[in-house]
Write a structure and sequence with these properties.
rod-shaped, 46% helix, mainly alpha, 3 helices
Length: 162
């Protein structure tokens, strides 16, 4: 093991790469600059170290990678397409409206909203089946009532016998 305090180690600082903050100076003691004031202070009128020239923005260090911005936003209409697809199974007429709105929003930006299309078609099919079912029930009830009343009228007129 090597002892960092042993005498056989060189006492001179090692040369490092350029300053990552863009000052262009090597770390370690800096040479004296001529002028008045404190030792190491620049002469009057000389640009100060660490400040950019007047009128220019400060130079920031360049990151080795681009900054992270998080997730890309969803295309417009994608969430409404999902809601329209779910509504196709729950409340089909509302699914038609929401899915059509989702497809309209997605079409503006060129996004192919597959769930919006499925939601629209399924909502149309389920609404049509629901309308046919209600029509069948209404016809069955009124048809049965019509048959019952017509047979009652025939019985009361004496045309039917039991």
């Amino acid at each position: 093991m090597s002892d960092p305090y042993s005498a056989d180690q060189p006492s001179t600082p090692q040369q490092a790469g350029p300053d990552p903050y863009g000052s262009g100076q090597q770390p370690g003691p800096q040479p004296e600059q001529p002028g008045h004031g404190a030792p190491g202070a620049p002469a009057h009128g000389a640009p100060q170290q660490g400040y950019p020239p007047q009128g220019q923005p400060p130079a920031y260090p360049q990151a080795p990678y681009p900054p992270a911005y998080g997730y890309a936003p969803d295309p417009p209409g994608k969430t409404m397409g999902i809601v329209g697809f779910v509504l196709a199974f729950v409340i089909a007429p509302a699914g038609i409206v929401v899915s059509a709105m989702a497809l309209s929003e997605s079409k503006k930006v060129g996004y192919d909203n597959v769930l919006g299309k499925w939601g629209l078609w399924l909502s149309i099919i389920f609404t049509a089946l629901w309308v046919l079912y209600v029509l069948f029930i209404v016809l069955a009830v009124f048809g049965g009532m019509f048959a019952a009343f017509s047979s009652y009228d025939a019985y009361s007129a004496g045309q039917l016998s039991v």
